[in-house]
Amino acid sequence: MDTETIQRQYNEVVAGYYDLDPQAVLGRSLDRAFEQLRDQYLIGNGREGPLKVLDVGMGTGRFLARLKALDGDRIEPFGLDLSEKMVDCAHDRIPDLVAEVNDAAKLEECFVGESFDLLCTHFVTGYVPISFLAPKIWDRLEPGGYWSLVAGTKAGFPNLQARANIKIIRWLCRAGSRQLHELLLNPANPAAAVQTIAANGFQICVAESFQPDVEFPNFDVFMEFAYRGGWFTPIIETLGLNRARPMVRRLLSRLLFPVNDHHTIAIVLARKIAREDLCELPSLPRSSCPRSTGSSTGR
Fold this sequence. Notes:
With 299 residues, the protein is of the alpha/beta class. It has a single domain, classed as Vaccinia Virus protein VP39 (Rossmann fold), CATH 3.40.50.150. Helices cover 37% and strands 21% of the residues. The chain is built from 11 helices and 10 strands. The longest helix has 15 residues, at 25-39. It is globular and about 60 Å long. The model is unreliable at 280-289 and 291-299 (pLDDT under 50).
């Protein structure tokens, strides 16, 4: 999917709907990333001095705003997003935000001359592979700086993926030979995300595998989440489901739904360590493996 198409989708389809966060998967995931930062004393009680934060793929700025609400002027907020409308919303929410409109894949071109204490990439790896992103993040962090990753994985939505592979469903969706998980660039699973981060010279501070529940009673609720909510917008348009005729919508609603399912999300906090301190890592230590956590309620 080309950058201009994704930019249009987020400007025209997702930006105005993003903060509604259907099924609260975004909010529940960011809650856990926030708690990881607090548990490591990067924010809140125990934090001393300023924290220069860059949120790559910041959306409407909700995570940066939450950091500011807790630590006020100690947070120096920078943000990057491909959607101009998202950046406008973030500016309204965070008056002192320094922001740029650009592709996360071009991180080295943004905020030239700046380096950061904390760099956040939350739900970016569907469009920019984590293996491509990791060295760019390394280069923009101060020594000892932290990377907060929240990433969907291809292990997510197993029930929906199984239903979508039924022959008649694939025919109605005009999917051809394409598999749903092949249309996004996410890591295979949380362990794969951790392995990639560690292989790029980061010390894993904490890693979680989060599986928030979702419910799709019918096609319309699915579209609210998947298309307008931004989770599968490129896939939906690639398949043309956003333009499906009423008859096709009714058939899909009857044949595919209801679906009760869960996402599978990697939530990791890692620290940049000096390259000369790196040792050979034939396998990850047990403390670096994601621990599995079930669904939660609230945002």
